[in-house]
Each structure stands twice: as C-alpha cells, then as structure tokens.
Amino acid sequence: MTDLHDLCRFPTRPITRGTYIPMLTLYLKSGIPATYTVEEAELFEQGIEDPVDLPSTTTPLHILMENVPVPAQSSLEEIETVSAMIDELFQWGAGWCHIDTKERTPACILVERGLKDSVYFTQMVEAGVRAELLLRKVGEHDMEFIDDIEMDFDPEMVEQTESDEAEKKEVNEKEEEEERAELADDPANNQETYLKTKLEYTDNALVTEKNRDGVMMDWESQLMQAGADSMASGTIDEDGSVDLEYVCLNIGFGMGIIDTMVEKHAVKPAKHYICEAHPDVLAKMRADGWFEMPNVVVLSGRWQEALPKLLEEGITFNGIYYDTYSEHYEDMLDLFDFVVGLLKPHGVFSFFNGLGGDRIVSYEVYKKVVELDLNNYGLAVTFTEMDAPKETLVESQQKMAADKAAEGESAWEGIKRAYWVCPVYYHPEAKFA
Ligand SMILES: C[S@@+](CC[C@H](N)C(=O)[O-])C[C@H]1O[C@@H](n2cnc3c(N)ncnc32)[C@H](O)[C@@H]1O
C-alpha cells in the first residue's frame, strides 16, 4: 500500500479540493505511476521490483471507485473534487480498462455499486472513447513511442537496467506470439478459420460444432425485428412519400431470423438481397429454398467481395442491415465506405449492435465511437433503447450480486462464451444527416 493508494480511499471527509488535489499531484509528480497497483506495492514490500507477469491489477482508479462516496451523499465540492482527481489520474496515464482481481474495470465497480448514472461513470466512458480513438490513430500511422529517456546514469546501473529490459521484452514478445497464434486459431476471431469451421444448427442457435461458440442465437429475435422494421422505414421519403420499390440488403444470414421477418413484413420487399459467406449456412439456405425465392438474390461469399460489384452495378437500397460473425470493428469501418455508396438518400442503415456488449462500460464506449465514426461518413445515428431479454442476464446478475439469487434459465446454457451482458440494447438507425 502506498500513500497514493491510501489517498484514494478518502481517509478524511469532507473531500476538499484544497487537500486532495495537491496531495494527489504531489504523489504523481514524485514518480508514483498513476497505474501503480496494490499488487505491485505488495510485491515491492517483499523485495520484488518490476514483476513481469501480473495477471490482474488493482489500480488507484479501482480503489477510488470502490471508495468514492455516493454522489447523493456528497456535497457539490466533494463531487467536483473526485471528478478532478479522476481527470488528474487520467492525465498521468491511468487506464479506463485495467482489470482488477475480480475482472472489473474501475467503471464496472461503479456499475456494481449502482453508480452508472454518476458523472464518474461518464468520465470513464469519455476516457475510453479518447483511448480508442488514439489507439486507432497510433495504428494508422504506425507510430513508435520512445520508452526510454537516456540519462546520465552510473554505467553499471544502465547495464543492469538494459539486461532487465531485454529479459522483459523477450517474455513479452513470447507472450504476444502465443496470443497471436491462439487468436489465429479461434474461429470467433479469425474469419479465415471461421469459414473453414464446421457449424451446427441447434433448436435455438447456430454454433460452431467443436467449440460451441454462439454464431447466432434466437434470443436476438426481438432485436432482429427492430432491424427489419428499420430497413422497411427506409422506404419513406423526407416529405412522407413512399418508395414502392422496396429494395433491401441483409449481410449475414445466420439463422435467417431477420430475413424471414423481412419476407413477412407488412412492407414487402421488391428485391431482397442476402449476402452470406459460410458454406454450411449457404447449404442451409439452399435446403430451405432461399435460392429459389423470386424476389431474393443470394450473394454467396464475403460482403468484401460482393459489395464492390453492387456498387459497380449502381444498385441502391432503402435498407441495409449488417450482422456478421468473426469480424472486427475495423471491418465495420470498411463497410461504412460501401454503405454511403449503396444507401438511397432516405435509406436506413442498421446493424446488430453488440460492440463491446460483454461489458457495460465497453458497450457505452463503442456506442459513442460508432456514432462519431458514422458522423464522419455524413450519417446521423439514433439509438432506441430496448430491454435486453432476461435470459441473457442470468449469469452476469449472478456474478454481480452473489447474494441475490438470479432467476430463470440462462440463454448461455451450453454456449462457450456469453457475448452479451448488458441490460439495455441500443438499436441503431443511421441515415444521411
Ligand atoms: C450472427 S449471424 C447473422 C444472423 C442473422 N442476422 C439472423 O437474423 O439470423 C452472422 C452471419 O454472418 C455470416 N458472415 C460472417 N462473415 C461474413 C462476411 N464477411 N460476409 C458475409 N457473411 C458473413 C456468418 O456466416 C453468419 O451466417
């Protein structure tokens, strides 16, 4: 435990700006890193410096979030001082997504304490958005950071530090290599691997045969209905006139839930394009007669190959829906390039908004990031809040409140990883601004 950690427990009340901010700045300026963890401090006390492999880390921000008085029982000055402390920690490099021993980010602790609506939670989300955008810029420009400032040290000490650094680097590189190999092998992460992975349709899901990863599950039906409705709403012009030639494009067939809804919708599609890449899903579509339906055009293959052809042919859509598997946010950014070319002026683009859905704070961060990105493409997005189906929340409720018995059967029974834990789903609708 260091003085910095102690301060983050708010040993004295009221929390005054005059006391807390100078103390915090003093500790940070004296060289205690803003990410210095309780675990590191404990090891340091046992004589272990620079531990190489710490699986979880309780940072000053975690301690702060655990101990911050609830805003309803704080004065305005206390709230403002805590906010300023959070800002100060971020300025000195504190992280919004570090994980403590219970796998919680600082914001997760706020959620657990019922403080999701607090200004502190908003600060975590804003920090997350800044970090995501910065990371992207770093990636784009292939920037390198100077991580050592050469100083005039004792040569023996420099030698020792260099050999420690080299050892650390070697361990890190080995770990990164193993991680890369693992990810390349994971169908949920690597599209090439996914497209070669055998799939299985069960009663309520489409899963990878071996790993039991959920590719699509029927608890999403309600969300798909919202998607089908959004696409159909792209037939209505700004002046209220209706486009009778409703043309839509769904990317990712999965269980065919949204495509079935499109076909049964009150607004009938004149042309319904479906793009699907996986051979097992295409076989199911063939068996179920989708290839023979007169208004349906099946685009077999990845959207990355199919969409440029649609652009070339000058086809435009009232509605576009995107819900694939084993793709990443960067793929979605690539898709936006096509969406702006393929959407009619009054058309609607929507997608399965599961981005960051396995952690409430990440979900909020990605909601903001995707909004900013769509805005950059001239698309304005609105989010309709929908209650997430209860069966998806059983496990996360159990995890969060071990004292309260969570009710009902879990949607994740027999599924390897719960990819959704958020109580509210933000259904997106993007239109040209
Ligand atoms: C989550 S499921 C879609 C579920 C669908 N919305 C429904 O209502 O049943 C994702 C689907 O996208 C397909 N897919 C994944 N990557 C793709 C890509 N690059 N191009 C086209 N389809 C892709 C998968 O094979 C899978 O069938």
Automatic annotation (TrEMBL):
Keywords: Cytoplasm, Methyltransferase, Nucleus, S-adenosyl-L-methionine, Transferase. Monomer. One of its GO terms (molecular function) is protein arginine N5-methyltransferase activity. GO terms for cellular component: cytoplasm; nucleus. GO terms for biological process: methylation. Belongs to the class I-like SAM-binding methyltransferase superfamily. RMT2 methyltransferase family. It is found in: Cytoplasm; Nucleus. The keyword Cytoplasm applies. PROSITE patterns: SAM_RMT2. Its EC number is 2.1.1.-. It is an enzyme of class 2 (transferase). It comes from Babjeviella inositovora NRRL Y-12698. Residues 158-187 are annotated as: Disordered. This is Arginine N-methyltransferase 2. Residues 187-433 form the RMT2 domain. S-adenosyl-L-methionine-dependent protein-arginine N-methyltransferase that methylates the delta-nitrogen atom of arginine residues to form N5-methylarginine (type IV) in target proteins. Monomethylates ribosomal protein L12.
